[in-house]
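Table S2 (text version). Query chain:
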Amino acid sequence: MTDDHTDVSAEEGRMRLFGDLEAAADAFEQLPVMLVVTDGPELRTVAYNAQARAAVQDRFLHGTPILEGFARELGGQGFAEMYATPTKTGRTVSLNDFRVQLHQPDGSVHEIYFDVVASPRLDSEGRPRGTILLTTDVTQRVLDRRAAESELEALREKYAEARGSVRAMQRALLADTVPVSPSFDVAARYVLAADEEVAGGDWFDAVARDDGSIVLAVGDVVGHGRAAAVAMGQLRSVLLSQLRAGTGIGEALSFLDGFAAGIPHAARATVCVVGISASGELEYCTAGHPPPLVLSAGDAESRYLPPSGGGPLVTGSVFVTARSRLDVGEAVVLYSDGILERPGVSPAAASLELLTTTGNAQRNLVLPAGAPASAAERIATLTIELLTRMTGHSDDITILAAQRRAPAPALEVELAVAYDAPVRARIALRAWLENIGPRDDDVEVLLHAVTELVVNVVDHAHLDPEDRALRLHAQLGGDGRVTLDVVDDGTWKLPIITGQRGRGLALVRELVDELEIARSNDGTTARVRHLLTRTAGLFSGVVSHAERDPEHFDVWAEGGPEPVLTVRGPLDATTSTEVAAHLNLALTEAATDVTVDLTLVSLLASAGVDTLFGLTERARALGLRMTLIAPNGTPAQHVLGLVGLPHRVDPL
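Corresponding structure-token output:
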């Protein structure tokens, strides 16, 4: 009787507190956000609404620990740490744009961004007994913001330079590329301290040598602000010149030490330098800097290398080196202490997290959807994202990674001399370059070069009708310089150079580092040499790019008195005729202006340039104005600038 009375009273108390309990339950179920309630230190699910059920699907059952259901796919993404924190500490965790990847029933991986509030669920005495998780899907907001940020990046750069900020100075002094090597994948990223006045003096460099070896360096100047940035720039320049000259590690650091003695704010700077031969022999010196770590290729245990001995610069140290080995598939990681000295994380815990996170990134065990194909790129980017998403960071962070791989094989292709030979040459060369991984600008330059050289063979070479073939050869040298040969067995006719023809070879000479053409009775070899690099630098988040076919061509027009023609894909000898037909039609319908948008053009060959020149002159003869749109950084803008064809760099 008493128990029944007590239950009724408790029910009445909840009614007075909440009002209609059924309405409250309906509201919980219909909330436009995901809400999950757990109980106990093992975080057993006791309630979750419709939005949450739709998101998690069948990953866990009611009453079972929620983390068990997500262990496989969310392990290493920081989800477990975030979820368990309120129950362990009584502290509410609030995060924006928290990136997770979930495996779908069809085998695909779905990337989602959430705003998260995880708060403690308290018992009657105010002690944490579980977690209340409220999440909102903000994926579209993140994608929209990143699109807007991309458009505003140029304005940000100009603004930062105009302010003369410490951050802008650091970015100007730091490397923005790393070399491409036949035997190593190299990647680097850095993130600056949020406070300009705290911004420090981290730097990194990587040097590829003719013998196939590489040298990696990460340094850190004591102090912050403008003085640290200036000292960093001086030390980096001196060390880089020594390493490029082939100086040994110990000797280079001794020279740097003597130089630093006369530089304000350079004392006690730390440096770690690692040299690796093409056969995997590794030599390093830590010079007061945290030691590098080596990530295993398989089931072997990853490890930190022991410090080599010796202290920071200008402390009277002797820079001795130590030796180890890097096997094929293994990676070495250099870093600055900003990744270890994160707020609220002990040094021991930070060291273990760094070792675990870099290893998971190397094996692509976390956030695999849209992740870089290169293990070094994954290490450099994902390590920063995963280790700072919960704690933030109070100092600069630099990550420099190199994975040893089997030497990149040469490209050997034989092609029939036909109208589609340039397309087939581009496809073969692009596939070979994707395995090497240079930056997009270098890829565009080499694809343009091979297009023009193959077109020249098709147009100008006298070949035996029974053996109309050409050969394509590409080889990556130890110093990161690619040699590209286009070889035929004929003799070339003299090109007819007019106002609208003969620009192909001239464009190639402008775009690549070197171009040589050797003619003999046995045929002709056109040889291109070009230094390849890989983009490095400021970490700004991981952005997945939609896959597209770079050889897909399309052209369409918006008619009217001021028609706009848009071209997508390669504009070369095989596609310029179609563009000319559309443009001629647009010119007949236009009243005053015709606009040609080249923003989406992936390659602008000399044949396309000829078409644009000719139709610009025709428009002028008709009393019309033809405007070409080629935004800064696009392949079309680069070529139009070289040939002097007027164009607008701002998009429509």
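Notes on Table S2: The chain is about 35% helix and 30% strand. The first helix runs from residue 2 to 18.
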